[in-house]
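2024-03-11 09:14:02 DEBUG pipeline.ingest accepted 1 chain
2024-03-11 09:14:02 DEBUG pipeline.ingest length=301
2024-03-11 09:14:03 DEBUG pipeline.predict start
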Amino acid sequence: MALEEAEREQREMMWTPTPDGPQPDVHPGVGWIPNEILPDWKLPNVPDGNGTSTASFVLIDMTDDDGPSVLGTQGKNCPTSCRPLRAKQARFPQRPYNRKQRFLFAEDEKHTPLVDAALEDLEDPTLKAEVIRHRLFISKMRRTARHMAHLRRKFLAYQEEAWATYEHLANANAAFRITHMINTDIGGGFGSGARLSYATRRDGMDVMEDPWMEELTRRENFCEWCRREDHDTRFCHFLPDTSKTNATSRIPIVTTDLHAKFPSTTSTSRRHAALHVLDAPSDVVTTSPKSLDANKGVMSR
């Protein structure tokens, strides 16, 4: 017993608050207030960490870029913990808000100063923090939407330029010239083909000789836009596609490669051909490339 008593006294001496060590229940400093807003927030006891108790002091940060947050601690020089500051729930379940009620929390409206004044007089920092969080993420949505619109315009411009290269390649008879060179020299290991291994030449020739091999190799495990695993992101049907969509509705209608069916047309005539197909009744839209080949590009009932 004497030994246990001596060990207890030694531990108490080690836990005695010092100017440089943890000082539980001592005011941490400027900005900290006694915790009266989060009575259910439990933090490890100081200094031994055994058990938990309600945070003694909190520090509210309404300017956090991720939304208002609150810091909690047991005292001066004690460890701190951080969590989002959310509105305290009412005693009884509430109905979801309708559009008019949601409009109350909008920013930069004629009634916004009245709402802000009411929040000040209510003296509920959790409610004020929730309104600030709502307006913050609405603002983030607005900025993101404008950025997405800018990226959409860039995506369509890149897409048009990529399609234009097909026209120039077709006008240069590139497919025939390249294929002829591969069949006569490269595939046999002559010319620049001498730098390629036999396996590389064989695999490439197998692909070129297969009339049904026309699908691009998958480069992504899943689509970053819709999260499906059956296509790459740039082929997602949620993205705008000038070759497959009506310029007015932006709704995918035809899933065939129109330019592949009209390889020698100019960009203007290709658009006219595409619009001619897109203007067809919905019950005659053909989505299979083979059906277009069979009908020589003519859709019929």
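2024-03-11 09:14:41 DEBUG pipeline.report The first strand starts at residue 23 and ends at 24.
2024-03-11 09:14:41 DEBUG pipeline.predict end
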